[in-house]
């Protein structure tokens, strides 16, 4: 196995409250177990007929039809008092088999079925919130809830994951056209689709720090992040006067680190290259607060009535294992309740987002920002439901048919994003419920 690559926020572990023995041995045990699992997986791959993979999505169209007739026959649950944060994943065959990701142009690395992922049980679960129903995604309900509006996803690759899921869920059912897409390296990072039947547009703006990020965010060949906490992200801020609904998601890049600025002055650094070691160690928490605050502030100003949805942190499942290990994440079922406690740092990042939402609500009520109290702030709390789905990541199936030429010792695994279709579709099931509530 290769050298550890610090992509995983767990490299920032503070002393755990667990006993050291347990803490140290856990990842080791886990990768042993994973090794066995992945052999089983390989066996399945070599020895199952090609028809197995074709069969994956064949009931798809019929399923879409069934889902819609089912949903439209459910008497109006307006979801007003439902808290979707807590719940459990329940077995629901076919629930997430709703579209062919190749046809809606998702990032190839998250198109797990195209890439040959042989086990598809991860598509057979639905989120059951505690004490209330969560209807399956219904494209008509979504488009009706945002009729005439511009919905913008702003943030890191988890924001993109959710935005692409939404596009797939909508384009599988309604006519659309692509309004705009960047070319080259950023083709998945800046785009807009239109749904003329409801006069709706949906955009994605790459802004992994929400605020202005120079260096790596603009050019992947650069190693450093230079982040200006006093300036909103340039691309989305330029369009802000057209945005009616904004969904924000960030956090992973702030954990990874950056050099932070306020009006061109360096104010501190976190996990930055050695030449910045003489600057204040700023940590990730305060910059995260400031980044969300700046973004929400910009979105609450200008007088346009907007809905701003703060999505909470969607955790990764590397669990300290090397990202170039083929067995970094190979679980094939959701966690059961109590099986793995949410890693403290992920909980902390979630809580920061919730705190910023509360602060923003208070500011709106106080009438700050000139929005005249017209800004509606909502939280899309996905941390728990995402944490419970270690099986939903592309893992080695971020690569095209990874075992075509044998089993390499090293191979990158994606234990952060979700396969499309997959658990991230549930983020949008909840988003619909939030957006259709009365203001
Ligand atoms: C998905 O769509 C692509 C492109 O149309 C097609 O080649 C592929 O076979 C489809 N996959 C499944 C599982 O139906
Ligand atoms: C889905 O419903 C539409 C319209 O009711 C129908 O034309 C189509 O054949 C159905 N598809 C399947 C696979 O049942
Ligand atoms: C929903 O539940 C979560 C987790 O228990 C809690 O943190 C949050 O405050 C609740 N939200 C509301 C609006 O009650
Ligand atoms: C930047 O500096 C201004 C002026 O001193 C201050 O009001 C603001 O809070 C600072 N912002 C950040 C993110 O440090
Ligand atoms: C840190 O070091 C750099 C280059 O050596 C220097 O330009 C900068 O002023 C130093 N900053 C502080 C806060 O000492």
How would you describe what is shown here?
By secondary structure, this protein is of the alpha/beta class. It folds into two domains: 26-81; 88-436, Rossmann fold (3-Layer(aba) Sandwich). Helices cover 31% and strands 17% of the residues. The protein has helices at residues 20-47, 50-55, 60-73, 139-145, 157-171, 234-238, 252-256, 285-299, 344-365, 383-387, 425-436; strands at residues 87-91, 125-129, 150-155, 177-181, 190-195, 200-206, 211-215, 225-232, 245-249, 258-262, 265-270, 307-311, 376-380. The longest helix is centred in the first third of the chain and has 28 residues, at 20-47. The structure holds 2-acetamido-2-deoxy-beta-D-glucopyranose (NAG) (5 copies). One 2-acetamido-2-deoxy-beta-D-glucopyranose is lined by residues 56-57, 100, 102-103, 113. One 2-acetamido-2-deoxy-beta-D-glucopyranose binds at residues 56-57, 100, 102-103, 113.
Question: How are the SSEs ordered, and which strands pair?
Answer:
Elements (H helix, E strand, L loop, with lengths): L19 H28 L2 H6 L4 H14 L13 E5 L33 E5 L9 H7 L4 E6 L1 H15 L5 E5 L8 E6 L4 E7 L4 E5 L9 E8 L1 H5 L6 E5 L2 H5 L1 E5 L2 E6 L14 H15 L7 E5 L32 H22 L10 E5 L2 H5 L37 H12 L3
Parallel strand pairs: 3-6, 3-9, 8-10, 9-12, 12-13
Antiparallel strand pairs: 1-2, 4-5, 5-6, 7-8, 10-11
Helix pairs in contact: 4-11, 8-9
This protein binds 2-acetamido-2-deoxy-beta-D-glucopyranose (5 copies).
């Amino acid at each position: 196995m290769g050298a550890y690559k610090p992509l995983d926020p767990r490299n920032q572990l503070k002393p755990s409250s667990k006993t050291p023995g347990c803490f140290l041995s856990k990842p080791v045990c886990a990768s042993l177990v994973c090794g066995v699992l992945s052999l089983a997986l390989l066996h399945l791959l070599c020895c199952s007929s090609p028809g197995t993979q074709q069969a994956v999505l064949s009931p798809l169209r019929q399923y879409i039809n069934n889902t819609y007739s089912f949903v439209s026959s459910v008497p109006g649950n307006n979801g007003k008092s439902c808290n979707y944060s807590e719940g459990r994943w329940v077995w629901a065959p076919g629930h997430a088999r709703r579209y062919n990701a190749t046809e809606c142009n998702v990032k190839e690395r998250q198109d797990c079925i195209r890439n040959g992922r042989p086990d598809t049980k991860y598509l057979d679960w639905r989120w059951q919130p505690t004490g209330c129903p969560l209807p399956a995604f219904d494209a008509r309900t979504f488009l009706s809830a945002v009729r005439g509006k511009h919905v913008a996803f702003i943030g890191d690759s988890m924001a993109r994951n959710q935005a692409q899921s939404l596009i797939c869920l909508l384009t599988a059912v309604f006519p659309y056209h692509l309004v705009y897409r960047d070319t080259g390296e950023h083709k998945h990072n800046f785009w807009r689709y239109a749904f003329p039947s409801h006069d709706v547009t949906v955009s994605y703006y790459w802004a992994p720090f929400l605020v202005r990020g120079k260096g790596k965010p603009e050019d992947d060949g650069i190693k450093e992040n230079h982040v200006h906490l006093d300036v909103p992200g340039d691309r989305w801020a330029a369009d802000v006067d057209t945005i009616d609904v904004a969904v924000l998601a960030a956090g992973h890049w702030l954990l990874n680190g950056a050099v932070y600025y306020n009006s061109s002055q360096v104010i501190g650094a976190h996990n930055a290259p050695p030449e910045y070691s003489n600057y204040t160690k700023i940590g990730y928490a305060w910059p995260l607060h400031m980044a969300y605050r700046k973004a929400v502030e910009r979105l609450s100003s200008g007088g346009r009535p907007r809905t701003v949805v703060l999505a909470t942190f969607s955790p990764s499942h590397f669990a300290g294992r090397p990202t170039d290990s083929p067995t970094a994440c190979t679980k094939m079922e959701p966690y059961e309740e109590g099986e793995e406690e949410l890693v403290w740092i992920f909980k902390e990042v979630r809580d920061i987002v919730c705190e910023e939402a509360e602060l923003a609500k208070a500011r709106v009520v106080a009438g700050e920002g000139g929005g005249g109290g017209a800004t509606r702030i909502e939280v899309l709390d996905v941390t728990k439901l995402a944490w419970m789905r270690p099986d939903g990541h592309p893992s080695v199936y971020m690569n095209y048919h990874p075992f075509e030429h044998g089993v390499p010792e090293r191979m990158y695994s994606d234990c952060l994003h979700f396969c499309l279709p997959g658990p991230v579709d549930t983020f949008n099931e909840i988003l619909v419920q939030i957006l259709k509530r009365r203001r």
